[in-house]
Amino acid sequence: MPLFPRPASAAKQSAGAPASGTSRPPRIGRTRKAGAVAAAVAAVMALSACGGGAAPQNADGTVELRFSWWGGDKRAQLTQEAIKQFEAENPKIKVKPEFGDWSGYWDKLATQVAANDAPDIIQMDEKYITEYSSRGALLDLSKYEIDTSKLDEAALNAGKGEKGLTGIAAGINAATILANPAVFQAAGVPLPDDSKWTWDDFGRIAAEITAKSPKGTYGAAAYGTDEASLGVWLRQNGKSLYTSDGKLGFEPGDIAEWWAFLKQLSQKKAVPSASEVVEAEAAPLDQSGLATGKNGMAFWWSNQAPALEKASGDLKILRFPTKTGSADDAGLWYKASQFWSASSRTKHPQETAKFINFLTNNVKAGEALLADRGVYPNSEVRAAIQPKLTPADVKVVTFIDQIKDELGEAPAPPPKGAGAIQEIIKRYTSEVLFERLSPEDAGKKATDEMKSAISK
């Protein structure tokens, strides 16, 4: 296993999605295995968790910071406006942007970290923050002047670990089911009451839409490609994806039940066939089944709703179904869409922290970034910028506020090696859908691989 994860993924995780991602929502996405940076192993292991010493300055007294993130052109435009506002308030600090799409981001970051050439400020993902932090690559931000008093507690805690506070939430979102009302209307099927629907309701509604729609249109997209949908399912069944001590929080039978239900959906044609699911893997966000009107429902993170709505027209944000029919049992939580992290080897820790504090707490930063990375985690900034948000973004903020009293405790953060889990889930989902493995056999094999991945 490489010292630092270097995944590549589907186009959905990068430019098109307002926040990727985090990770892509529960759709099948392509992820190649991480590659090792063998020649740099010694250099990486030598990383320490402390920042550099005295901060060197340019001849004119200015300090230059490098800031890396993934995302598309729109995100680059918004982020560079935030940089402009920061530099206007801090003329002695210059921020140099470094950005690209998700598929190349992690390869580049792994190489930079291994070569002791990491950017000062790093947009970090939940899947990899523990990996980088545990190796001593990220700065403990709690030692610097960053105000976290206005942040949602669960989102704040998501950036904490054994090495301290190594990530500040850049946005918050929640796992959702997005529904395309036009598909429902064309099929003559009413939208569900998401405050009390069950998984059986979901399957019945999806199958009914398929039966009453033109060939090639399905009631729902298939779940089964990453941690989000599995995490919700497990939480509703009293389990968890991970435990606080970095182990799996479920048994083979638990994930087998999840796949067994998906297989039932497939057999009832409530979701696309296995071959159609594979074919859809490479589709960008605006060509996904939901965006093109080929799916009535799909599993997405809430922050991706505006981009999908732009492509498809009006969408409805729904809570996950439950076993009990009560929204209080949905098992949802506020997830940090991404984090602001800093290199432990930055030569400018004070200035780096100042920039992260600006991104987190300054209304001017909020007015520049808006809801691109999810709902703003600072409650005061969120309120201040709401009049500037698009109707689609307001819809997401309203949903996030609506479920506040229904949330469960935040899940344990992904442990080291968790970056490999999505690929394992995706691969065995395909095995089940193509009926090459039973859900039970897939559950045993997958959990063995997952345990191996996070134990290294």
Could you characterize what this model shows?
- By secondary structure, the protein is an alpha/beta fold.
- The chain has helices spanning 41-45, 73-89, 102-114, 126-134, 153-157, 181-187, 199-211, 227-236, 252-267, 274-279, 305-312, 349-361, 363-369, 379-385, 391-402, 421-433, 439-454, and strands at residues 63-70, 93-100, 121-124, 160-161, 164-165, 168-173, 175-179, 218-220, 295-301, 316-318, 335-342.
- The strands form 3 sheets. A 5-stranded mixed β-sheet has the order 2-1-3-11-6. A 4-stranded mixed β-sheet has the order 8-9-7-10. Strands 4-5 form a two-stranded antiparallel ribbon.
- The N and C termini lie close together (7 Å).
- Mean pLDDT is 88; it is low at 8-55.
Give the structure's gist in a few sentences.
The chain is 39% helix and 12% strand. It is built from 17 helices and 11 strands.
Q: How many helices in DSSP terms?
A: 17
- Strand percentage: 5-15%
Strand-pairing-aware structural class: alpha/beta
Q: Mean of residue pLDDT?
A: 88
Pattern of helices and strands: HEHEHEHHEEEEHHEHHHEHEEHHHHHH
Strand order of the largest sheet: 2-1-3-11-6
Fraction of residues in helix: 25-40%
Largest sheet: 5 strands, mixed
User: Which consecutive residue ranges, at least 5 long each, have pLDDT under 50?
Assistant: 8-55
The termini sit apart by 7 Å
Q: How many strand segments?
A: 11
- Computed CA radius of gyration, to the nearest angstrom: 21 Å
Cα shape: globular
